[in-house]
């Protein structure tokens, strides 16, 4: 897809991978709209000339706020990038079920709601794309983050089924699977992290080259291990 002249909506576009994607896609000639829930992040992106929509996607009202702000405007690319983590480890104490609900809504329900709300306008364009940002953890979960991993695995399954439904249409369905990336969500992690700008670059390249999957960084290796032995991939990742 040639992004020049395309209107792109990036959820979670005021920080991290989403923010980097916004800059890179605008540099390629796209008109980029971002969403976020941090007032400071929203104002920063507006100061740089981006349209920024306030929306908390861990609630049903979040996706509706985006649809209302868009009005009837056409878009060619929907990037479901917004996501959040949650502590859910019984080895460290009783988890918070309300926090789990927020994570599930932000990572799974809201991408589905936005897809339903915006698919008709995507279909109305000569070419369009839905990009769902999952995670390498959608392939094999880590032991300390079962809820987050479950949401990403769920979004991966949704993406694959949606791709089959839209086969032959003008809407390409792309899954982006990042590794551990240097973002606010991973601030407490000590493992090696990919810079957000490089992760975004690989995802944008996949969109430009019309790939169905963007296996970013070390996720390529995880995919290879999983293709040989899913059980081995699970054993490796469940240690973390």
List keywords for this structure.
single chain, 240 residues, alpha/beta, Rossmann fold, seven-stranded parallel beta sheet, 8 helices, 7 strands
Mean pLDDT, nearest integer?
Answer: 94
How many DSSP E strands? 7
Ranges where pLDDT stays below 50 over 5 or more residues in a row are none
Annotation field: number of helices? 8
CATH class: Alpha Beta
Termini separation (Å)?
A: 37 Å
Looking at the structure, what is the overall shape? globular
CATH architecture: 3-Layer(aba) Sandwich
Helix content: 40-55%
C-alpha Rg (nearest Å) = 17 Å
CATH topology: Rossmann fold
How does the helix and strand content classify structurally? Answer: alpha/beta
Strand order of the largest sheet: 3-2-1-4-5-6-7
**Percent range for β-strand residues:** 5-15%
Secondary-structure element pattern, one letter each: EHEHEHEHEHEHEHH
Main beta sheet strand tally, sense and closure:
7 strands, parallel
